[in-house]
Amino acid sequence: MNWQQFLVDFLTWVIFLYSIVLLLCYIFIAFYSIGETRKYIRKSSFTDYSIMAVSEHTPSISILAPAYNEGATIIENVRSLLNIHYNNMEVIVLNDGSKDDSMQKLMDAYQLVEVPYVFTAHIATKPVRAIYRSSNPVYKKLLVVDKQNGGKADALNVGINIASNDILVCIDVDCILEQDAMQKLIKPFLEEKEKRVIATGGVVRIANSCEVKDGKIIRVHLPEEFIPRVQTLEYIRAFLLGRMAWSRLNGLLLISGAFGAFDREIAIKAGGYDHNTVGEDMELVVRMRRYMEEKKIPYKVAYIPDPLCWTEAPASFKILGRQRNRWTRGTIETLKLHRKMFFNPSYGVLGMISYPYWFFFEFLAPLIEFAGFVAFVVFAVLGLMDWSFFFALLVFILSFGFLYSVFAILMEVLTYNQYRKRKEIFNLMLTAFLEPFIFHPFVVWSAVRGNIDLLRKKKSWGEMTRQGFAGKKKN
Amino acid sequence: MQPGLVFNYITLYLLDAVVDPLQLLAVTLFFVCIIAGVVLFILFYLIRRTGRSMRRRSLREQYSNCISELAVCETDEELQSFLQQPDTQRITRLLEHEAFSRRVIITELLKTVKNMSGNAATNVCWFYEQANLQHDSLLRLQNGAWHVKARAIQELSGLRQNKYITKIYRHTNNANELVRNEARTAVVKLTGFEGLRFLDVATYPLTEWQQLCLLYELSLHSNRSFEGVQRWLQSSNSSVTEFALRLVEVYHLHACFSTVTSCLKHAAKPVRKKALAALKEIYDPAINEILVAMFPAEDADVQILILQMLKEFGTEEEQAFLLQQLLHEQQEIKVAAARAVYYTQPDAESLLRQRVQTDTYPWNVLLVQLKQEVLL
Amino acid sequence: MKILVAEDEPIMLKTIALRLRKDGYDVITVADGREAIEQIEEQNPDLIITDIMMPYSSGLEIVGKVKASGQRNVPVIVLSAMGQENVVVEAFNLGADDYITKPFSPNELSMRVKRLAKTA
Questions:
Q1: C111: domain CATH number?
Q2: What's the CATH code, domain A60-165?
Q3: Nearest CA to C101 among C82, C114, C117, C86?
Q4: Which of A9, A13, A306, A450 fits a disulfide with A325 by CB distance 3.0 to 4.6 angstroms?
Q5: Closest approach of chain A CAs to the CA of B132, in angstroms?
Q6: Could you say which of B72, B113, B219 has the minimum Cβ distance to residue C106?
Q7: Shortest CA gap A38–chain C (Å)
Q8: pLDDT digits (tens, 9 = 90+) for B323-336
Q9: CB contacts < 8 Å between A and B, how many?
Q10: Known InterPro entries for this protein (chain A) (predicted)?
Q11: Residue A176: which residues within 8 A CB-CB, separation 6 or more?
């Protein structure tokens, strides 16, 4: 046997194994998530969360809301944060050197006055210009920090320094939260005695086309535009199947930057957000977990599947591309920073399962897929393609993907069922059917571009231009 | 996470050697069958659910009218005439025949007693028995899965079915955490402080959540008895000790002072923290000395709690100690110490100005901040 | 005499309204904070009963608004499940005239309304 033949055989088997393991992972995730979801739903069926709002003994929390050029909606958004049903909380709005009139608007709407406020710089950050409180006692939970621009991670670090409570809740200021969001998000911190809960992650759902009034979702609709609609499906799959399974394994690596709670002490000890990466939300969770593993303290990262946080998803390929490009870079940077854990048994589930999964199936998958596509074109052009086999494999893969999506839709229907109309559910299925042809190749391409950009050391944030909910009211 | 599918075109070419296309097609067909099944199931489920949720809404609407009328009845005559009303009669007839409607009304009744007390609550509980609904709850307590049991316990206790307390008490040490929690909360709801006797034999830890629920239930009871607290403070189950410390804190149980003080030496940090919180409420000057003595060996978070206590109760005795902490390497401790000095020491401002560099951070800001704080 | 009741739980709202109508008051019911603020301006009630945890605006915000406006003499009763000391103190600081914690007795509420109605 010559070496060329050996190489081809070797590659065949590696790829074959890779594909099989990937498919098995999906199947495993789908089945493994069911038990966890069922348990959570059953538990919620009799839990009276309002005790979290009426008890004297709930832990105090600090909500950190970084804002950069959010002038269009900031007043309304801060108002809805202040109206969250939770007693012991402070809301810290971090104005990250906005260039628009956000700061002035806040000053006027909430009658802010500058106050002397000492805090400890546990984590080094860009300088704070001033700290404000409201002179109106109705808004006494509010604290506004004006700081020099330094990016989201930097703003959150300032928030970590300034926060006076043990639990931090990081949210995107433009998200719409349900009013009982904190009751549900904080509860996991109270449920463990043997392990330390270092973070809780919540679900982010897509608010495009939903009816919004005064910072509250009135009625949920499936997005009318195709791009946000596919993302709705993606989010359902990721949050209802993926994260649920990972949380059951206690191997969750990612908590959405848009909605998550952290143990302040551990966040500080782990060093806070890293402002050198574009994926600061994932990186922090990985670093906090790594810290706990290294200190050998039993810990848990909890996950709450209730739809409590709604956000506007990118509606154009351009902005979506930037977002996915950034996610890819964030993932790679995080994996690179923590490569020490790769198949390292001293990091437990984190090192042996979570990290390798992310490496092989989140980082490598789009690359392999892209390489495969190039190979396909080459083979097709050279006339080397076995078309009958091609179509057999194509329908196989497509049907598997569709099955996975339909299963996710089933879980959504059986659990939270946000989309009330039957038409919307079937629309979602149609979307699942179209996804691999229209949407998926673009996502892969964006991921590949992310890799290329990273190699070129590009570090821009990929600005998300927001239209603001106020402008999209439906009457 | 970006779950997507790998269209593996390399695989495609290479796998030719490994897999037969016909086999692939067979598997595909299998997938398609499952998809069809799932889609049909979703369709069926959605149709059924729409019907159910519409029915539930209409039932709720009817019941809420009925329950509010029931809640405002003041005399027995009013209650009897409420029962004789055609609407009520129609509803009770339906309750006899249909389990679904019974479930809906129990939920509504439970919600009502959660929010109302006095006559209104008594009427609601009376109606629950009158309509023989406790029979449903009992059946579910007996035969249900864990979440059904937990729910049944809530119903029985929420609607004051004291006669079934032994059936509920049996579950206070249930292996399932959630059933156990509900049972414990339920006995306290029904019998108040007396119900806490399960703490004597509690082997599982009480989570913070459980403690919150118990304290909330206790807050609704007026006849208090703290007979077991001393015992629980010394429990070998440290979460029981924590809970007892919270009782001391909430109800200002000065009699427990010496036992609480000994909890400051407890091995578990949460216990020590809660002991400090409790001591704040049953303060005695004798404690200052102990606080100063335990300070050096503690973690920063406990140290800050100690300084916060001295901010309330510090005397000139502690002056040297507090001033010494101004030089501590951790800023948070320095600041807490300065605050304690400012609030408790005579002529504190000049005392602080002598000790610190007033033109550097944090002192330049802190002195202004403290001045404003005191004014508020 | 016109009383506005703001409460988001329908059974509670109906019961309170029924109880107060029995006492001969005119009752306006609203189910959320925003509607409450609108109706207070429009209808000029003589007394306000409000929950704290409601959609859109919290009851405390309503208290603050009423007491800072031309209607500051209108008595406001806060009716809430939140019994924490800091919340009660805050409510009174903002100008609330009475504070009732849930679970509450409708009869007691009626008595308190009567007492406040006399002074109003």
A1: 3.40.50.2300
A2: 3.90.550.10
A3: C82
A4: A450
A5: 22
A6: B72
A7: 28
A8: 999 999 999 999 99
A9: 214
A10: Nucleotide-diphossugar_trans
A11: A80, A207, A212, A215, A216, A217, A309, A310, A311, A469
